[in-house]
Design brief:
With 406 residues, this protein is α/β, with parallel strands linked by helices. It has 15 helices and seven strands. A five-stranded parallel beta sheet has the order 3-2-1-4-5. It has a two-stranded antiparallel sheet with strand order 6-7. α4 runs antiparallel to α5. The longest helix is centred in the N-terminal third of the chain and has 21 residues.
Length: 406
């Protein structure tokens, strides 16, 4: 009988579609770990129940889909000082998923707009099902959803759609649709987390380490070696070798960068410019990561990103190495160190940088950073690469044209 009711459209379904990269639960909830996840699920269920009760619907199934990029969120939490949230996030996610069988919180990885793609498909498919009574849409911070929302409205399904903003501000094109809203301020952060650029974190010395001196800063042009390598980290090869020594135990890219007094020299190729969108593609042949910073930061000017343009079309474009690793050119860099970037801009920089091959891997070596290397270990176009067929693709090592997602 239950299956028959579903087929007849008598079993009403209410669905929450949440973009977890823009709808971030409050610090108070996430800091509680698993208990916070359970509490968040209860709060969401209760607010939806109140809304549906006001419309006269008491019996329904509640489905919640939340898609997010875990690595990006954890990185942001760390850089804005939410260490407890970062440490408790996995437990929070477990609690939320265990709260009910139909509550699904999923890490979709770091591919650009991966969460967006899943939400769009669910919106287009679920809202047209006869047993879908209402969809609460939580992607109000991103104008990229407006086309799909307009398509739903054009199909005459306006009465099935309710916006669920996380941030106080709704994207201007979505706000213009004048859809009803359900706000839950006690559940989600009301403002964006704006993380400082990576270089700003590196500027201050670690606790217990004296500030860098001008004399030390002047030595940045010369290769330097620390007195002793950190535990588990071998010294990397010198100026003339152009390879990265294998470490006995693989550590994360970020953890190596954060080690005090460690110096890494990684060489990358200077690829052709016809396909690269990474601002540092022509300057990436010699990259040093110095922590703490041994050269002064760029002047504190600030630029705003033009949302109408991709990052690679800005003049000058943001410096990939400055924001993702460490740029050795300082104030003389031909790319900009002065943009104010948000999480989506870092994601775009990461995607563009992966289009430039890692020199170590491209020469058949084994990059010790693995998948967390800034640059690409395989061609983004895989086996269908047009430039490979012409024999001019920058990714030349064996196995660098695998099938996508392999």
């Amino acid at each position: 009988m239950h299956e028959l009711n579903i087929l007849k459209g008598l079993e009403k379904r209410v669905i929450c579609l949440l973009d977890g990269d823009g709808m971030i639960f409050t610090q108070e909830l996430m800091s509680q770990g698993q208990e916070g996840g359970l509490a968040a699920a209860r709060k969401l269920t209760e607010r939806v129940r109140q809304f549906m009760s006001a419309e006269g619907l008491e019996q329904y199934q509640l489905w919640v889909y939340l898609f997010y990029h875990k690595r990006g969120l954890l990185d942001t939490f760390g850089r804005v000082g939410l260490a407890t949230v970062r440490a408790k996030f996995d437990d929070f996610m477990m609690g939320f998923n265990q709260a009910a069988e139909r509550f699904i919180m999923v890490d979709v990885g770091g591919s650009k707009e991966a969460a967006d793609a899943k939400l769009k498909v669910h919106l287009e498919d679920d809202i047209r099902l006869p047993h879908t009574h209402k969809i609460f849409f939580g992607g109000c911070h991103d104008n990229g959803y407006v086309h799909n929302l307009r398509s739903v409205l054009t199909s005459g399904l306006r009465d099935k759609l309710v916006l669920m903003p996380g941030y106080s501000d709704v994207a201007i094109d979505i706000k213009a649709l004048q859809l009803p809203e359900l706000r839950v301020p006690e559940l989600f952060m009301s403002t964006k987390l704006v993380a400082p650029p990576y270089n700003a974190i590196a500027t201050a010395p670690p606790p217990g380490l004296a500030p860098t001196t001008p004399r030390l800063s002047a030595a940045v042009a010369q290769p330097i070696s620390p007195p002793a390598a950190p535990p588990g980290l071998n010294h990397m090869s010198g100026e003339g070798q152009g390879q990265t020594a294998r470490r006995p135990s693989l550590q994360s890219y970020k953890s190596i960068l954060q080690m005090p007094q460690a110096v890494s020299v990684v060489r990358y190729s200077s690829p052709p410019e016809e396909r690269s969108e990474s601002s540092e593609s022509s300057e990436a042949s010699d990259i040093r990561h110095h922590f703490p910073r041994l050269s002064p930061p760029s002047p504190p000017r600030q630029r705003r990103i033009d949302p109408r343009l991709p990052l690679s079309k800005h003049v000058p474009p943001p410096c990939t190495l400055f924001y993702l690793a460490q740029c050795r050119h300082g104030s003389t860099c031909k790319y900009s160190h002065d943009y104010i970037l948000e999480s989506e801009h870092y994601k775009e920089l990461e995607e563009n940088a992966k289009k430039t091959p890692c020199k170590v891997t491209n020469e058949g070596g084994d990059c010790s950073f693995g998948d967390e290397c800034v640059y690409g270990h395989s061609c983004p176009n895989g086996t269908v690469c047009y430039y490979m067929k012409l024999g001019i693709c920058k990714f030349v090592a064996a196995g660098m044209h695998r099938q996508p997602n392999n």
